[in-house]
Amino acid sequence: MSQTITIDPVTRIEGHATITIRLDDAGEVADARFHVTEFRGFEQFCIGRSIWEMPGLTARICGICPVSHSIAAARAGDAILGVRIPPAAALLRRLANHASLIQSHALSFFHLSAADLLLGMESDPARRNLVGLLESRPDVARNGIRLRQIGQRIVTLVAGQSVHPSWTAPGGVRVPLAPARRDEIAALLPDGFAIVRAGLALLDEIYQRHAAEIGACGDFPSLFAGLVAADGGLEYYDGLFRFTDSHGVIVEEIPPEHYDLVVGERAESWSYMQFPYFLARADSEDRGMYRVGPLARLNICDSAGTPEADRELLAFRAQRSGEWGAVTGSFHYHHARLIEILHALERIREILDNPDLLDHHVRSEAGVNRPTGVGVCEAPRGILFHDYEVDDNGIIQRLNLLIATGQNNLAMNRTIRQLAGAFIKGGQFSEGILNRIEHGIRAYDPCLSCATHAYGRMPLRLQLLAPEGTLLDQLARP
């Protein structure tokens, strides 16, 4: 008989996790849970601050995607001011967001996952990291470092600094782009294209090496959600909030500022991270589970809208699973990230050719005209919402931050259950099993790993529990 195990997540914050696995009487997996301590104090201590401070404050939420938080905060401010920002400001925000996605995806694929994908899940754990990758596949490791450097450099050229830039503002951005900086960005692009094309060329090797386990890594039907352009194309800054099912059918499409009409949030006693769900399917077997991020974005869009990314999108969609019209395996997040990097480089090249980009009018000035505002953009890990309520002076009275990692929480838990069930038999498991389960989490590139994964290892504790709750075995990774 199964038993519910409750672990109080007191001490762990971003970068720490615990997995518990319950066995049935036959020693097979009955349940598995991913416990995360992600205390989002920003929703409390930002109360009482002004909307003009929010882009700079919320950029501190994450060290990997501060640009996305800053843009979502500024967009919420735009809505409260009731202004349309200048075309140059919109282009600059898009440019910085694409560059942020490049550096974040490069970190995820080349630094955090390539060691698993190219050296093997069962390879020596002492070498299964970036250092080991530098020794065995130096070209891949160096390409990853260079690609991340390109993304960071573009963010710096646009926003003044690569980490926690206080550059966006309600109404636009603070500084226009100088022509010399535009030219430097253009000069970085050929290296970026060459590296991501080389990364895509690794996929045949990766899929052959992991063919036996791809189907156990989060391969199940679910909803997918994210932004799409008005024409259904891949979109990261504006557009509509779309949900599709595993058949590829659109089940909801609304203006993103009305997200709370279709998304609910529930809490569980065993994790600080909430469990957002699709309201219309809250009572279904999967409890309204949906996925966001690269896999979801490539499933929900009608096209990428750029030549090279559209060609790669066709290859990506050839991996549709069985009866499903969507790519349902979370292993394919890796492939999707590379396509998104390619798409971002193509979009940056288009933006650099736009004559409005260098316009000096980059900010619309206004006072508070509305009591509420919702800011949305696609962060590297998925769609991001900043929902603010202010008083007449623009002082925050209430805010809700709906981040991508939380929206993937139900799917991440189901992924570790699927992996544990596939690889733990008769109550036996090994370090290699631990790594496979960790990789299943890493495929989503959750925020909790951002601060601690720079060298390819995430603090993780895995416990194996008998039906009555007795601890049978455990592995801990500091």
Question: Could you please describe the fold and organization of this structure?
Answer:
The chain has about 475 residues and is α+β, with helices and mostly antiparallel strands. Helices cover about 40% and strands about 20% of the residues. It is built from 14 helices and 15 strands. It has helices spanning about 40-45, 55-60, 65-80, 85-120, 130-135, 140-160, 180-200, 205-210, 295-300, 305-315, 335-350, 405, 410-425, 430-440; strands at about 15-25, 30-35, 170, 170-175, 225-230, 240-245, 250-255, 265-270, 270-280, 290, 370-380, 380-390, 395-400, 460-465, 470-475. The strands form 5 sheets. It has a 4-stranded mixed β-sheet with strand order 2-1-14-15, covered by helices on one side. The chain has a 4-stranded mixed β-sheet with strand order 7-6-5-10. Strands 11-12-13 form a 3-stranded antiparallel β-sheet. α6 (about 140-160) runs antiparallel to α7, α7 packs antiparallel against α11 and α10 (about 305-315) packs antiparallel against α11 (about 335-350). The longest helix has about 35 residues, at about 85-120. The protein is globular. The model is unreliable at about 1-15 and about 450-460 (pLDDT under 50).
